[in-house]
Amino acid sequence: MAVGLSHFLMVSGLLFVLGIISMISRRNMIGVLLGIELIMNAAGLNFIAFSRYIAQDLSGHIFTLFILIIAASEAVVALAIVLRIYQNRATISVEAVGEMKC
Amino acid sequence: MNILMNLTLYSPELILILTLGFSFTIHLILKNRVITLSLVVFGLLAAALDILVLYAYPGQLYFSSQLSHDVFGLFFKLLFLISCLLTLIFSYDSHEIHPDRFGEFTLLLLAVTIGLSTLVAASHLLTLYLSLELVSITSYVLAGYRREHLLSNEAAFKYLLYGAFASGTLLYGLSLLYGTTGNLSFYSIHASLNSAYIDPFNLYAILFMIFVGFAFKMSAVPFHMWAPDVYQGSPTPVAAFFTVAPKIAGFAIFIRFFYLIFSNETVVPGQWEPLPYLNWASVLALLSAATMTLGNLSALFQKNAKRMLAYSSIAHAGYMMMGLVVLNQTGLSAILFYALVYVCMNLGAFFVVSVLSNHFQSEEISLFKGLGWHSPFLALCMTFFLFSLTGLPPLGGFIGKVYLFWALVSKELYWLLWVGILNTVISLYYYAYIVKEMFLERPSSKMSLQVPYVQQAILGMLAFALIVFGLYWEPFYIWIQSSLTFTIFQ
Q1: How far is A100 from chain B (nearest CA, A)?
Q2: Do the chains contact at B150 and A88, CB–CB below 8 Å?
């Protein structure tokens, strides 16, 4: 069986859903950040697959390169914020940051 | 098109980038806040002047159709420059912005402004995504600017969480849109959506994912949950900027994206209709009603002034969405006019809260008690801002609301009109409550509030602008109507 577009889409859809589940269910901030990375990589995989099978040019590949860069810089900022929370509260559990309530 | 023309059309952002680098270097060497601030103000004014010069150039696509040059984008760029300038000058005297780290603050705020002004000009999915992330990532840092402050940490983390989720979903939607059409440029996507039949279910899913990303920026229901927490936790001048600039940019890119890609211009000029079998406008009408009702009802019960204004800013996003629903030129110019007035009144209201929080280190509404007795100027300005937010004549907010409601009448959307009017009445309660506290209650203690002259000048200017918009709005409205040409097909 040859690998086609639908296989790529299935993997990326799975990655997207797993990323959202991980963002919602993980109690550890690092786990939540991993979920964000999964979502972005799912979209990147989509772009590469579509670029190969539908558009048949390199625009999707270039988009994916940019997504990788953005994911890296987002991770930098996110880890800096988590580090600051750890220094101030000595915990990185998501439940620890919930002082503001309506 | 040669490279010189490209750079000329991108020059406002280039000036801002140069200002950013230069002022930060100077700040590191001299560590003098006055010099840094005056450099940045000079750069911002130069960029604004440059935009005025660029009005003479005809609309066109540049940088291999990544960006579009049109008066629609220029209008929003001017708004962002004005709000960035006012925020910077106001935060100079704010205690929440640490004097030693003022250079960082200007750097981040300028970076957000560059991202916003690129975002409103985007005409390609790649530029759209990159500039949106430039805005978001720098905003997370700005929200957490007070490193030692627990609420500021919390605000940054929540902003990051919701923002990353929204932009991840947007990105997935963009990738599906690319897969359905095989193109990345707005104009090519529109052409291929029109030429081939595409399964409506597929398109609705894409539309929803993209809407998540934009609704997060506009803080529209149901993606508004982050707004009150983030605005409460961030430093007050930063919160003032967040409620104004990224929200308006969200509206601008929503208009450009949805009107260029998911709508067709009808035979009547200035009227659009959604793509056949894709009626996104009526879904948007429901969301608009939900947004303003939820924002206003939640604002009723707030004790914290910043949190109350945050909910009120959600409600105002709902009002502005009314203009998107009607899909004609009247609605769009009403949104643009409301955005102009909203910048003045919301920045002003947040700045007054910032003055109070500088003095008391707290933002409770009870602090407004008797403000009119010991600092009448501040209280008078706040009254103007609040009444304009309510929409009382003769202030700018009234004219803005009248134009929005008029757009609904022209499309015979009477149920939404009634929801809007009812919401205005509800909002009168919590805005007028603060005015009552300021003037009808005696101050609880003898004190005097020292407001620096620069801040007084800014507040007076904003209040004056609101009166001008309320009494002599016609030239501004005509200018806005002429800023609505953004459809340039190559």
Answers
A1: 6
A2: yes
**Contact by Cβ (8 Å): B71, B59:** yes
Q: Do B133 and A74 touch (CB under 8 A)?
A: yes
B64 domain residue, yes or no: no
Query: Hey, of B125, B172, B192, B229, which one would you mutate to test binding to chain A, going by the most A CBs within 10 A of its CB?
Result: B172
Number of separate domains in chain B: 1
pTM: 0.95
Nearest CA in chain A to B145: A81
A91: phi > 0 → left, psi -120 to 50 → alpha, else beta; which? beta
pLDDT at B490: 39
Tell me, what's the pLDDT at B487? Answer: 55
Residue-number span of the structural domain to which B384 is assigned: 289-490
Spans of chain B, pLDDT less than 70: 446, 486-490
pLDDT tens digits for range A51-95 = 999 988 899 999 999 999 999 999 999 999 999 999 998 888 888
- Establish if B427 belongs to a structural domain: yes
Is the CB of A16 inside 8 Å of chain B's CB atoms? Answer: yes
DSSP secondary-structure letter at B274?
E
CATH architecture of A5-89: Orthogonal Bundle (1.10)
pLDDT in tens, B111-130: 999 999 999 999 999 999 99
pLDDT of residue B266: 77
> Is residue B247 in some structural domain?
no
Q: Which residue of chain B has the CA closest to A62?
A: B126
Please tell me the distance from the alpha carbon of residue B49 to that of residue B15, in angstroms, as a whole number: 11
Q: How far is the CA of B110 from the CAs of A75, B132, B308, B464, in angstroms?
A: 22, 15, 27, 26
